[in-house]
Amino acid sequence: MKTLSLDAVRGLMIAAQGLHDHPQPRATKKAVRSIIRQMHLLQIDTINIIARSPYLVLWSRLGDYNPRWLDYLLAEGALFEYWSHAACFLPIEEYPLYRHLYESWVGGRAHKWLGENAAVAKRVL
User: Fold this and answer.
1) What digits encode the pLDDT tens for the residues 76-85?
2) Is the residue at 17 inside a domain?
């Protein structure tokens, strides 16, 4: 059995996240979608010191790009928002993996919780 050195594993992990040092071609909307597919998700974070976190993550991987492309991809249905380990943008190809979680929440636990906490739900609404 072959083994990889720790440096080789680090290099693979960095490349898998799209953070390698190779020169990148000019960013496109298609590249935004591709890097999110490569990462499998893009965490939505409200930290807003320079810019919101998802935009900085894309910039760190693509360089100069049009931040509106993320909005366009969401509007086109190429991405969807869902709770993975946190609130995330996910490629639509991942939707079947999350559908059962959505159905179990909406069809079961959410309705049960709302029924048991009607006063809270009424106050929120």
Assistant:
1) 999 999 888 7
2) no
Q: Which amino acid belongs to residue 71? A: D
Q: Is residue 67 part of a domain?
A: yes
| Token pair listed for 100 | 């059962």
Strands in 42-43's sheet, in edge-to-edge order, are 42-43, 87-91, 79-83
Query: Residue 101: which CATH number?
Result: 1.10.10
The whole-model pTM stands at 0.68
Q: Using an 8 Å Cβ cutoff, are 89 and 41 in contact?
A: yes
What is the total count of domains within the chain? 1
What is the torsion angle, in degrees rounded to the nearest 10, for the CA atoms of residue 54, residue 45, residue 104 and residue 35? 20
Residue 16 lies in a domain: no
Longest dimension (CA), the chain: 61
Q: Which residue has the tokens 């010191």?
A: 49
What is the DSSP code (8-state) at residue 93? Answer: G
pLDDT tens digits for 104-121? 666 666 677 778 888 998
